[in-house]
Amino acid sequence: MHNLIIAIFCSVAVSVLLKIAHKKNIIIEQAIAFNYIIAISLSYFLLKPDFKGLAFTDYIIQSEHSPIFLALGFLLPTVFIIMSKAVEYAGIVRSDAAQRLSLFLPIIAAFVIFGEQITQSKTIGIILAFLALLCLLAKPTDAMKDNSFKAIIGLILVWFGYGIIDILFKQVAKMGGAFPTTLFIAFAISACVMFIYLLLKRTQWTTPSVLGGILLGALNFMNILFYIKAHQSFSSDPTLVFAGMNIGVICFGTITGALIFKEKLSKINGVGIVLGILSIISLFYLDKLMA
Asked: Which UniProt keywords apply (predicted)?
């Protein structure tokens, strides 16, 4: 449980950093790019990836896990770029809703791909989780931008992209001792993709963006690492982690927004927080209480 709590805390900390980035003259895309350099470094020194005596490129070609780290390497930065476009065309509220409601995909995967057993407590917890999400995301909607087609496509890709990333992280958690190497390579590929993207945009690097990227990289690395560790702790119950992470992040994020940024909470948002807490209790503890 503590791994999931640390992952939730780090995820919300990342959101807070991204929220204040503009005021600190941090260019988000540059910070994201440099964040992967920090993530690569932390992966190398803390997780000690093992390439089994092969050269880096040879390992990528020969590893049985290459589809996973290649997919993650391209998806992590690509979905971020898509998210930024979705916010531009569809607004932040709709984009955030698409990201959080992507929970639907990993929940389906938990039962179809990972063979998790459906229980009464999980069914109740999942229903409460989706009700909580709908209540927590019930905010005044941003006006849709002029190009509604781009907005719709962006929201669909955000929903699909974040759902697939969650499923891939569960696959990484199942690798056991091979997950440090997979994570290292995924970050390396992500860095290449992001730097190529910025090179094509001919971005002008700024010091605040690089410094912001250092902090972002540390938080993002911890978020992903402990999210994977949470999956390893609950290896037979991926639903607990998928739902617990999403509900925990949005509940804690909503409370943080209200306390730090003075964001207004509606009554239905308050109901969402209560439902979120009940969902987590149901997912993690209802079976024990009923035993």
From this structure: Membrane, Transmembrane, Transmembrane helix
Q: Which residues contact 206 (CB under 8 A, 6 or more apart)?
A: 25, 26, 27, 30
CA gap 46, 49 in Å, rounded: 9
Write out pLDDT tens, residues 40-63: 999 999 999 988 888 878 888 888
Q: Do 136 and 254 touch, CB atoms closer than 8 A?
A: yes
pTM listed for this prediction: 0.86
142-168 per-position pLDDT tens digit: 555 556 778 888 888 988 999 999 999
Q: What is the dihedral of CA 107, 241, 136, 153, to 10 degrees?
A: -50
Residue 140 phi, psi (nearest 5) = -55, 125
Can you tell me the distance from the alpha carbon of 97 to that of 139, in angstroms, rounded to the nearest whole number?
A: 10
Paired tokens of 220: 């993002």
Count CB atoms within 10 A of the CB of residue 264.
9
* DSSP characters over 96-128: HHHHHGGGHHHHHHHHHTS-PPP-HHHHHHHHH
**How far apart (Å, rounded) are the C-alpha atoms in residues 264 and 84?**
24
Distance between CA atoms of 75 and 81, rounded to whole angstroms?
Answer: 10
The residues, ordered by sequence, that sit 6+ positions from 263 with a Cβ below 8 Å of its Cβ are 254, 257
Q: Where are the domains of the chain?
A: 2-111+142-235
